[in-house]
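Work Package 3 (structural annotation) set out to generate three-dimensional models for the target panel prioritized at the project kickoff. During this period the team completed the workflow that converts sequence records into discrete structure tokens, so that structures can be stored uniformly alongside our sequence database. As a representative example, we reproduce one entry of 186 residues exactly as it appears in the project archive.
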Amino acid sequence: MNCSPPMSGSLPRWRFWLALLLQVGLVAAIPARKALTLATGTTIYLQVAPVDPYDLLRGRYIALSYTLAQSPELEKLPGWSPELSKPGLLYLRLAPPNGDPAQPWQAIGISRDRPKDLQPAEVALKGWFDGWQLRFGIEEFFIPEALGDVLELEIRRNPETLRAEVKVDPWGQAALVGLWVGEQRY
């Protein structure tokens, strides 16, 4: 006597569509976060110190290191304490520069928790502190091969004018929009 249910040989259609919808949702969620940041974020500018590597598998890119994210700079900020020197999430409070809003923004505070008392013009940028520097997930800028030599030459001529154009959403997530060398946007 066989007690098992009869096998129909086919999966109900709703299970197929549910599995497909979940897979598509997971794949779409990855770029959706950056798209939301780009759509709703506040534009800020950060001073950068570049390194120009070349990866055979990924092509040409510029590795960016943000001057305000280095440990010696972070230790000078209001809110810094020895407890913050341990690896973990940190929020950098930034204010726009006086005058030209396309100039690098200034760090004015740091904390483990997202600041709740931000002024209307300020933003809180979320990053991971590794004990040496704060990383925001915007440390690589990929460039077309044809622009690589031109951009590298411009950076060498005017390194002090290199800044990153970044969008920061209300939750502190960052998305790199472009690089500026002097008045030229890449």
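The radius of gyration is 22 Å.
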